[in-house]
Design brief:
The structure holds 2 protein chains of 2 kinds. By secondary structure, chain A is of the alpha/beta class. Chain A has 11 helices and 12 strands. Classes of the chains: A alpha/beta, B mainly alpha. The A-B interface holds A 57, 59, 82-83, 86-91, 94-95, 97, 99, 102-108, 116-117, 120-121, 166, 169-170 and B 172-174, 176-185, 187, 191-192, 195-196.
Chain lengths: 329, 280
Amino acid sequence: MMSEPLLQVSSLTVTLPGGAGPLHAIMDLNFSVRRGGTLGIVGESGSGKSITMLSVMGLLPRAASVTGSVRLQGREILGLPNAELARLRGKSMAMIFQDPLTAMNPVLTVGVQVTESLRLHDRSLSRRAAMDRAAELLETVSIPDPRRRLGQYPHEFSGGMRQRAMIAIAVANSPALLIADEPTTALDVTVQAQILDVLQRMRERLGLALVIITHDLGVVAGTADRVAVMYSGRLVEEGDVTTVLAAPAHPYTVGLLAAVPRIDRGNTRLLSINGSPPPLSNRPKGCAFHPRCSVAQDICRSVTPSLQAVGSSQVACHFPYGAAEASRP
Amino acid sequence: MTMPLTVRKRFVRPAWLATPVIIGMVLVVAWILIALTIPLWSPYDPIASVGRRLMAPDAAHWFGTDALGRDVLTRTLWGSRFSLAISVIVIVSAVLIGCTLGAVAGYAGGIVDSIVMRLADITLSFPPILLAMAVTASLGPGLQNAAVAIVVVWWPVYARLMRAQVLSVKGKEHVEAAVAAGAPPLRVLTHHILPLSWSPILVNATMDIGQVVLLAASLSFIGLGASPPTPEWGQMISEGANRFYNWWIAMGPGLAILTIVLGFNFIGDGVRDWLDPRRA
């Protein structure tokens, strides 16, 4: 019998109020994350990556309507009252934000912010014990001289150090699920690798499941074991990271991979996918990707493809690469 | 032999500490000292007749005497106690009430926000002096009631300011991060929003102290604040107003109001520059 995944998202649909009518930001999304696994969610800006994870955390504005099901450790958390959610946030699931510069409170010391997350979920913890624990946490995310650092303000930290501190805050209560929303986008390339390394170490040490939201396929290749590709609010391809990156089945994934600059391929022109993602208010009929797709047929313009198993992955495409190559005209 | 390198620190005057700011500080500190210590060195009794009526300023009575033979300078100095006390009490109350309501309105949003802010709009739609007059008149004349009336007039200013601050800070990422860490709403408001919201309140409050001195004096001037024997500035000016040729009666309290309002305004300018994030 298969054990239940840590996070199970089923038919998640998010609708945001818009000036010209409701905008469907996420449509019928299904995915799961297993205990100790790492899922990379990739897609262009506006594809709904962040909204998906914000709705898991219950952090979307009240105006957004969220339907479907989000089960964390077997428990339905969608639609929980806010007080219940607050108890889960930081304790069972935590989140790291894109820009560590703005994600920390500028007027509180780092120590106060790390201990806050500890003491929010353990009222019996004394201030002193929390400080000791905070110092340990900074140590585990490789911040040198943690005692002194705890007394400093965020502006005294470099970008990389700040993101480490954010990770320390997020893992303070050993959450089962850690969501990292573009954790390295705002950082120098050299620092990126270190941060990803810290995230991996945390995953191994605490046995937490990691969800990394990114538009950088390199990050996915280096850290994730599963990858989910999103386009215009839908999952278009989901599968084992080596399979998807080595033999992508959806034309969009193929395009994304072709657009990655390669240092080993000589001086060729950088490829890109023609056009830009459709606005939420004016999504094309059928497959949302068809106006930009090189293999689109009539059926793509009228019927929205559903996820189907292709090899070991799931793909939402009428004409996936790798499946029955012969049927492709 | 090596000498320890000592760098003598010379005081470099920061840019926000401009000359008017220093003048303002001197004026305000002087008035505060006067208000606190006047019982110890008062030249004359402020409410007793100490000389001939309506004497022009001379060596014994620097600001002359009023229609009842009381020393104008003494009464002016004593008047600072009323003006400073009323303006500080009024501003502190207005800030506390206004900021609490504004913060709650901005953070909660929705119907709470609408109710509080419409109430503030209604209050602000009246000319301040007119509304203060109406409230004092309905409560009955007196310094305390005048103070209550000014608070009623003044809180919406702070409610609006605070609400705007909370709205802008609320959208910042560290607030979302705090929510994501499991902080309950009240804690988010008190620890992650309010500490970033107080600076314009402080600037406004400093400047407003002077305005409250003026408004309190105005209410007394028209007979709704302090009652006659009290050496209150507005009250004193109204006594001098119908004795135009005895100009010194109104001059003392007039100068007092001028200097104290000017002082607080200058300090307010300094505080604003000091808190300016673009300050070098």
